Amino acid sequence: MIRQLSIRTNSQTEFIDITGKIQEIVGSSQISEGICCIYVPHTTAGITINENADPDVVKDIIKELNKIVPLTDSYLHREGNSAAHIKAGLMGTSLHVIVDQGRLLLGTWQGIYFCEFDGPRNRKVVVKMIEG
């Protein structure tokens, strides 16, 4: 089963907690045990698992990514979004989460974040459930 989420981002750089939406897909799949594969088909956006209890963690991650990869830095890419490409590469484009008893097997403080680095845009997240 493959499902697709549509996400509208509102800022140039933004982390959106999509854990609940992914869990809805897992629940509707009626797969009790398996793997949930989550894929972002974009070159300037990514995905990550991190703490979702304190919103300051996301703010800190964005702040530090902006230090490591500044928006402007004599990049050669003519589109002007090289920083977004680099940050997306650092985050990665896919995750695999174990599903147990119809639930994502995440740690107590973990959430799944869609990471926008070239927004605002309309984005997609592809989710595939694998039973097993």
TrEMBL record:
PROSITE patterns: UPF0047
Family listed: Belongs to the UPF0047 family.
The protein's name in its UniProt record: YjbQ family protein
